Amino acid sequence: MSRAGSKPALKHLDPSLIRDVQPIPGNDSVLSGHINFRSQVGDSRFVVGEGEYAMEVVVEVRPTKLDYRTDYEDLLEAVGGLARQLVLEFLRATTTAAIAQHGQDTLRVEWLLLLRSEITSLEHALGFIEWNPHKRLSRESHVLPSGSIRRPTTITRRAIARGRGEGEWVTSTGIGRHRSRLPASAPFETTDNGENRWIRQQLERAVTALSLLRQFFEEIRGRRAGQKTPSRSDAIVNELRSMEEAISPFLSRSPFAEASGSVPPSFASLTLQGRPGYREAYQSLMRLNMALTVGGEALNVPVRDLSALYEIWCFLAVVQQVSRALDLVVDVTDLVELRDNGIRLSVAPGFPSTIQLQGDSGYASVSYNREFRMLSGLQKPDIVIELVRDGMPPVLLLLDAKYRVVTTPEYVESFGCPGPPTDAVGQLHRYRDAIIVRYPKYGRGRPVVRAAALFPLSADHAELWSHHPYYRSIEEVGIGALPFLPTNTSMVASWVREALEATPETLAWPGPDFIAWSQFRARDGH
């Protein structure tokens, strides 16, 4: 309210937040209205102005989950970690012992286990090179007494012909008059060559990237210093430091210590790509330096848009779960751009992305922000899994990511424990009714058979979830809700695997039949 009776003004970077704030009828000096922050969390800045005076008001918006800052850091780490993991698996195109460990503890830092496996391979390759270095012949010029030169080279003959050299003039049989000291070059072996220089440069880059990554997690650990239980960042920091210490000593040892020159990053040779030791080091360093540095819009999402970051993590995590269930390696070229200076994650809030996984009897695609334009309006579920099998029409599984947990007494009394908002599950029912697709071979119809709302409930608080009506409704009507966080993926993993392994008849079931429709079909003999 304005003390002077003039008209105050309210400003915000997001005008839609304050569109309902208006002067009250009959008194323009007072503003009143409802501000709906929707999914935004974190600091929100308002400017209240009156004439030439203004005041900034900063409001911290907290969701029901009061540990949203920790969740933001965990999700940021998880998105980068999933990108690293998918890229390493794709580049290696093999299953390592680290990948096979799917326990809850290892799952949380599986990308780190893959890095450790790559570092170990690099150590072995560098150790082999240390004992079997590539050398090249080089010549070094010196001025020597003419009598000590046994095999004159071009540089010596040229000096005699031009009268160059040092010392007094002398005459030699068959040569003639020349200086007593002449320039000469002798061949010698050196490890200062392009191959060793390239490995040194890439090794320095890998050590620097590990150091920067370690510092990132050290900052997270510092912000969580007051927590009673050790942070996951502790283990990650220690492991990254161990990796640094494993490969950095090679920089001060032969042959890389002598390789002091520089080569372009695109340098390549048959020796570098084919000689034992060098081949393995080349491949490991290429994979490491692409996977260690992850960028892209998804990793620049501000804390106020935590819900968008949660959606992106859910998409990448579902891609991983589908690939595991099908035992296939994800072709990450649709998810990331592989560059010499690292990975750029191409998944971004609000933009569609799709990954396809081809199997023996069909394929599965996982889409983010896929749109279905219907007569009843645009339908845009967050994540769509499309399963195409031989001998049956395509089916769709939908997942909507909602970074919200309702903990009100009324909700807990109705459902027995905290969970997602009711409208999140209601939206999935509307998707199943509204989405209609035409397939050339099978005609027009509703392809959605199952759907689940994903919400951020940790494993510690999810013990009662199996008794929640939204969990039981998955079996009863094919639609419900599942907790999903980097530390709690088991229920979604089971849901995905069960759907992918289901028989065609079980998978095609869209929920209980419409009573009247089923009666007409029964009467007509269908």
Automatic annotation (TrEMBL):
Every DUF2357 domain range: 33-283
InterPro entries in alphabetical order: DUF2357, PDDEXK_7
Source taxon at top rank: Bacteria
Name of this protein: DUF2357 domain-containing protein
The organism's taxonomic lineage, starting at the top: Bacteria, Bacillati, Actinomycetota, Actinomycetes, Pseudonocardiales
